[in-house]
Design goal:
It is built from 15 helices and eleven strands. By secondary structure, the chain is α/β, with parallel strands linked by helices. The protein has two domains: 197 residues, D-Maltodextrin-Binding Protein, domain 2, CATH 3.40.190; 92 residues, 3-Layer(aba) Sandwich (D-Maltodextrin-Binding Protein, domain 2). The longest helix has 20 residues.
Length: 328
């Protein structure tokens, strides 16, 4: 069976490349973090003192390899991890007791189907070569984009390349389109060689980035996790009011300059309290976690990235978000 890897490998080659193993220090709550803006933003909480402010004893554990962080959570080596809803489903299907307690963000333009000037609409893509990283978020986004426009993957020729190589192939004219994430979306656009035909902004809710925790850790250290939720809302407010300082903090974590890192922020919809309450809402809201779950699960099952069924509700715990908001 292929391991589910609807993953974030964002700029891993240039961000903390020397850290091949996570450095874990003894702490009350250990939280895995890897290279995605909605997760790197936890370092704002650390540096601005928001964890301490809300009584959360937290140690952020950096993983240079995102998939290692998923494995670490499933094995109980960390108390919680920063991971996608899609990457949480395979462990849940195996019966691993995990709970999603917070939505950090949705990709809202950071992932995109980039096309050249000759491609005016989806019908122009029929039979064309599209480069992307198979089974990644890019593969998922292309599937959704084609489905929404009356097409399927059978209508195009998928070329399996890493995100960086896909962007290079597109800019060199070796493929007709590429599905990539930032910084390559921005690189292609600023080069004048391509523009987005479809982005993650067109599928609200389908690319949620989360804080997922071990059920046993949640029971034992609930106070710390409630404090983390409160700290996150401070982070979200800080990102809006002080974007330059936030970019400076976050860019240092991944080894970029602040100006380069700011490219990622507009394409990331950071979730505040109101957005979190909605995200944990009923399945009738098609942008909620329950609402998007069947679509994500279908993609995983169709591509043999997951075995078995998932009890979506069992993998969610809205009680912390509700406690902080003072609602039942």
């Amino acid at each position: 069976m292929k391991i589910a890897r609807l993953t974030r490998t964002l700029i891993a080659s240039i961000g903390f490349a020397l850290l091949t193993q996570p450095l874990v220090a003894h702490a009350e709550v250990k939280i895995g973090v890897s290279d995605w803006p909605g997760w790197v933003a936890w370092y704002v909480a650390e540096q601005k003192g928001y964890f301490k402010k809300h009584g959360a004893d937290v140690k952020l554990v950096w993983f240079a390899n995102y998939t290692d962080s998923i494995s670490a959570l499933s094995a109980g080596q960390v108390d919680g991890n920063s991971q996608t809803w899609s990457d949480t489903m395979a462990p849940l299907a195996k019966g691993i007791p995990l709970k999603t307690i917070l939505v950090n963000d949705n990709s809202a333009g950071n992932d995109a189907l980039m096309v050249g000037p000759k491609i005016k609409s989806f019908k122009d893509l029929k039979g064309k070569k599209i480069a992307l990283e198979e089974y990644s978020i890019s593969h998922f986004l292309l599937t959704m984009a084609l489905n929404r426009n009356g097409m399927t993957l059978k209508d195009v020729k998928v070329i399996n390349l890493s995100a960086g190589d896909a962007a290079a192939a597109f800019m060199a004219g070796r493929v007709d389109a590429a599905v990539v994430w930032n910084p390559w979306v921005n690189t292609i656009q600023t080069s004048g060689k391509g523009k987005p035909l479809f982005t993650s902004k067109d599928v609200p809710g389908l690319v949620p980035d989360l804080l997922v925790v071990q059920e046993k850790s949640l029971k034992a250290k609930r106070k710390d996790f409630v404090g983390m939720v409160r700290a996150w809302y401070d982070v979200e407010a800080f990102l809006r009011s002080n974007p330059d300082e936030a970019a400076k903090i976050m860019s240092k974590v991944v080894g970029l300059d602040a100006k380069s890192y700011k490219v990622f922020l507009p394409g990331t919809q950071f979730f505040d309290q109101k957005a979190n309450l909605q995200a944990f809402g009923p399945a009738s809201d098609k942008t909620s976690l329950m609402g998007v779950a069947p679509t994500i699960a279908k993609f995983l099952l169709d591509n043999k990235l997951m075995e078995g069924k998932v009890d979506f509700a069992k993998g969610l715990d809205a009680s912390l978000v509700k406690e902080v908001a003072g609602v039942k």
